Amino acid sequence: MAVIFCRTKRRAKKLNDALIAKGFESDELHGDLSQAKREKVMKRFREAKIQYLVATDVAARGLDVEGITHVFNYDIPQDPESYIHRIGRTGRAGGKGLAITFAAPKDRSALQQIEKSMGQKIERRSIDHLSPGKRVEDRPVKNKKHRR
């Protein structure tokens, strides 16, 4: 089970729709949902009927669900405190978890602020094999014209 954090409600909805279109069991949690809808989504997540919860920071605090193994920061949070709350959703009750933050070069100063706030460095890994604008599914096609 994983929580994927986005900065905006619109982005969370768009990402959730994309995950569902690809066949993933996913739902969204953000401030535009009614309390009844939020409770329904959380019930499904707690019961592991959905694998991915795409959320804004409304879910970063007070979300206590056992079994969350991954937190993805699809967008860098607005402040270091939000980062701490987000990654705290995994590895609860002595369990292990993994937090992954997607960042671009423009996010360097935000990452440095987070590291300073935490007092530790965040391990960095690059995905240099993906050039800007190139999708993972793009492959060279021999003897055929290739369109994007």
TrEMBL record:
Region: Disordered, residue numbers: 116-148
GO cellular component: cytosol; ribosome
SMART domains: HELICc
GO biological process, one term: response to cold
Family matches, as Pfam families: Helicase_C
Enzyme class name: hydrolase
Coiled coil (residue ranges): none
Domain of life, source organism: Bacteria
Keyword annotations from UniProtKB, A to Z: ATP-binding, Helicase, Hydrolase, Nucleotide-binding
Enzyme Commission number: 3.6.4.13
InterPro entries referenced in this protein's UniProt entry, alphabetically: DEAD_box_RNA_helicases (IPR050547), Helicase_C-like (IPR001650), P-loop_NTPase (IPR027417)
Helicase C-terminal domain span: 1-133
GO molecular function: ATP binding; hydrolase activity; RNA helicase activity; RNA strand annealing activity
Keyword Hydrolase in record: yes
Protein name listed in UniProt: RNA helicase
Organism listed in the record: Halobacillus karajensis
